[in-house]
């Protein structure tokens, strides 16, 4: 094996080992920067999630209301 291909293999192994180290380092930096939300921020998040649930529930209900008559027409015609 020539030295250039040997160096190439060493570089690939180094990159393979280095990737998890960088990932863990960046992950720890992210976790250390995160803060616990205060009560006001927590309530705003809860309100946003609740409005999302309500909107998707209403959309699903409307789709179901439209789907039932169309389904009855198609099945009843057969």
Automatic annotation (TrEMBL):
Organism taxonomic ancestry: Eukaryota, Fungi, Fungi incertae sedis, Mucoromycota, Mucoromycotina
GO biological process terms, semicolon-separated: intracellular protein transport; protein targeting
Identification of the protein by name: Uncharacterized protein
Transmembrane portions of the chain: 42-63
Any one GO cellular component localisation term in the record: endoplasmic reticulum membrane
UniProt xrefs under InterPro entries: Prot_translocase_SecE_dom_sf (IPR023391), Translocase_Sec61-g (IPR008158), Translocase_SecE/Sec61-g (IPR001901)
Pfam family, one: SecE
Subcellular location: Endoplasmic reticulum membrane
Keyword Oxidoreductase appears in the UniProt entry: no
Source organism per UniProt: Mortierella isabellina (Filamentous fungus)
Topology of this chain in the membrane: Single-pass membrane protein
Residue ranges that the Swiss-Prot or TrEMBL entry lists as coiled coil: none
Family designation: Belongs to the SecE/SEC61-gamma family.
Gene3D superfamilies referenced in this protein's UniProt entry, alphabetically: Preprotein translocase SecE subunit (1.20.5.820)
Molecular function in Gene Ontology: protein transmembrane transporter activity
Main location: endoplasmic reticulum
Domain of life: Eukaryota
Keywords recorded for this protein, A-Z: Endoplasmic reticulum, Membrane, Protein transport, Translocation, Transmembrane, Transmembrane helix, Transport
KW Ligase (keyword) present: no
Classification via NCBIfam families: secE_euk_arch (TIGR00327)
């Amino acid at each position: 094996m020539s030295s250039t291909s040997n160096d190439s293999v060493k570089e690939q192994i180094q990159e393979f080992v280095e990737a998890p180290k960088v990932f863990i380092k960046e992950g720890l930096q992210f976790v250390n920067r995160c803060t616990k939300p205060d009560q006001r921020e927590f309530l705003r998040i809860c309100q946003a999630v609740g409005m999302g649930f309500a909107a998707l529930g209403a959309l699903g209900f409307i789709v179901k209301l439209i789907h039932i008559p169309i389904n009855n027409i198609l099945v009843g015609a057969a």
